[in-house]
Amino acid sequence: MPFAKSNRLPVGAIQCDNTTLSLLKANDFVARTIREKMEGQGTLLINITSSAGSGKTTLMQETARRLKDKIKMAVLVGDLETERDAIRIREAGVPSMQIVTNGVCHLEAQMILQAFDHFDTKGLDLLFVENVGNLVCPAAFDLGEDFRVTLLATTEGDDKPKKYPRMFLTSELVLISKADLLPYLPFSVDAAIEDARGVNPEIEALLVSSTTGEGLDAWCAWLMERVEAKKMAPTV
Fold first, then answer.
1. What is the CATH number of domain 27-232?
2. What are the angstrom distances between the C-alpha of 106 and each of 40, 192, 198?
3. Model-level pTM?
4. What's the distance, Cα to Cα, between the start and end of the chain in Å?
5. What phi and psi values does residue 98 have, to the nearest 5 degrees?
6. Predicted confidence (pLDDT) per residue in 143-163, tens digit
7. Closest among 71, 3, 76, 73 to 39, alpha carbons compared
8. Does residue 47 contact residue 139 with C-beta atoms inside 8 Å?
């Protein structure tokens, strides 16, 4: 199974008075360092993205409860302020550390690398990075992940993939979250998936609810398949 870099678009650049500024060049360099580190220790790195309030942290809690006795996993959490999400994840039984961005609307690779100085990743089978809630800025920053997974909550509306195409273009999987609310909302799962695949024909899709457990077995199976593949992959 290939572990290609999730960010499929070229490095961004701005032309200013005939001077090209490679805004993401430094980030990409650090991301390669992270990717090499994860490959060297056989750790699968998943970048979880979404709008604010789509259910990332609750999904991390439920994933932890289902997998913590099967594999060694941990979560790095990005937020503008507070340590609340990391506390919630630790209460679910896995190590978690908060990265407080102090107003920055996304995580960058150097933030992840700095976190490694305070967070032991050795021996991990699976490391999640729960990104800041935002469908715009996080799409541009490679964090050294193997896969990018984007949540699209039923409460957001089914038109987000075409409105925020880069996030769905650079994701390998979209999770339609809060599926238990579908009977009460004007949300078309088919329309959302069709739009996502209009942007990225290769994207996979799962319907999940962290409240009822719908789809979580399929989600965990998706993860475990890739954890095992990462273990079997040749190291750099």
1. 3.40.50.300
2. 26, 24, 25
3. 0.88
4. 16
5. -85, 135
6. 999 999 999 999 999 999 999
7. 3
8. no
